[in-house]
Amino acid sequence: MIRASCHCGSVNLEIEAPPTEVIECNCSLCRRYGVLWAYYALDQVRVLTSDPPTKVYVWNGRTTEFQHCQNCGCVTHWSPVDLARNRMAVNARLMDPETLASARIRHLDGADTDEYVD
Ligand SMILES: [Zn+2]
Hints:
The chain is mostly beta strands. The chain has helices at about 30-35, 95-100; strands at about 1-5, 10-15, 20-25, 35-40, 45-50, 55-60, 65-70, 75-80, 90, 105-110.
């Protein structure tokens, strides 16, 4: 198990395994956030929040909730509105640098074709 946390420590994530690859996406939102996404099934991640809880931004046809720490502002993860989708992503920038360094970075053309361009 590995852990990830926002800068202030209000939001902690317990993750079943380190990512083998992380996704850099060039869509209008991800390029502004500057995040690297590590995808997981919902039961592979536990989100532990203290007060204040995460703030949610919904975009992309209301299918995805982008979550931020209300205190320090870090983008922590996204989760599906419909939990039957059983897919979420953690911002791998919140993981230890050593953990992130061992993952392959994939480049997703989310702005246009939705295909990997590497
Ligand atoms: Zn925080």
